[in-house]
Design brief:
The strands form 6 sheets. Strands 1, 2, 4 and 5 form a 4-stranded antiparallel β-sheet that branches. The chain has 4 helices and 17 strands. The protein has a single domain, classed as Creatine Amidinohydrolase (Alpha-Beta Complex). Helix content is 25%, strand content 26%. By secondary structure, the chain is α+β, with helices and mostly antiparallel strands.
Length: 263
């Protein structure tokens, strides 16, 4: 097992749900604004204002020096894109990653949005990434190994020759932003001993690339991660609570894509 897997007591589950449900509500609030013509900084401001006006805290703002209230990653940016004056344009694919702190508890999720008419390759990449997340979630039961998540996602991505990012992974979450266990999205033998027991809360957040799995970090800002071959990348993320009955998706939105959605 991981060094310090956190197992929450049943009375704490509702606090996890409340934080995650607010985060999902925030994603639905953003949905109408994420379209061609808006800047990523304008989206960031909407995230910040909505979160603070509800008495909550954007988790990324100031986290390890990160300067904004969300991450927005466009096209070849894999993750940790910093909002700025970049304007979204027709044909882009755009990942918006938001994390909220609600009364000391964290909720975390991301979605990749299609800006109008996108290329067939972009649409396929987004679809496979989305489907891989739900295939992984639906494969789990109490006591499942973390290894299973990486196996399911990797096997599914391989069918379309998409690369699964290895440098970044899902994580335990709850009272802290990142806890054990780490959740790799490709098979890592050591994760076989990490078992997902009732009361454990974690994210699954596959990042799939249209080409190689390899990535490079922008040295100028220390955050922005791009595909090494400059090909497209997509990501989806949910916060999951393992219960005695199986995985419960805490960050499901009311207006966003549900399992089985076709882009």
């Amino acid at each position: 097992m991981s060094e310090n897997p956190v197992i929450y007591k049943p009375f704490e589950w509702e606090r996890l749900r409340i934080a995650s449900q607010f985060n999902a509500q925030l994603m639905d609030h953003l949905r109408p604004y994420v379209k061609p013509g808006i800047t990523t900084d304008e989206i960031n401001q909407i995230v910040h204002d909505y979160t603070v006006s509800h008495g909550n805290t954007p988790a990324t703002l100031g986290y390890m020096g990160y300067p904004k209230s969300c991450c927005i990653s466009i096209n070849e940016v894999v993750c940790h894109g910093i909002p700025d004056d970049t304007v979204l344009k027709e044909g882009d694919i755009v990942n918006v990653d938001i994390t909220s702190i609600v009364n000391g508890w964290y909720g975390d999720q991301s979605e990749t949005f299609l800006m109008g008419q996108v290329s067939d390759e972009a649409r396929k990449l987004v679809q496979v990434t989305f489907d891989s997340l739900f295939l992984a979630i639906n494969s789990l039961q109490p006591g499942s190994s973390v290894l299973q998540i990486g196996q399911v996602i990797s096997d599914y991505a391989r069918d379309d020759n998409f690369g699964v990012v290895r440098q970044y992974q899902g994580h335990g979450i709850g009272r802290e932003f990142h806890t054990d266990p780490g959740i790799p999205h490709y098979p890592v033998s050591s994760s076989e001993r990490d078992l997902l027991l009732p009361g454990m809360c974690f994210t699954i957040e596959p990042m799939l690339n249209a080409g190689s799995w390899k990535t490079v970090e922008d040295q100028s800002d220390g955050w922005t991660v791009r595909t090494k071959d400059n090909k497209l990348s997509a990501q989806f993320e949910h916060t999951i609570l393992m219960t005695e009955d199986g995985p419960e998706i805490l960050t499901l939105t009311k207006e966003g894509p549900q399992a089985g959605h076709k882009f």
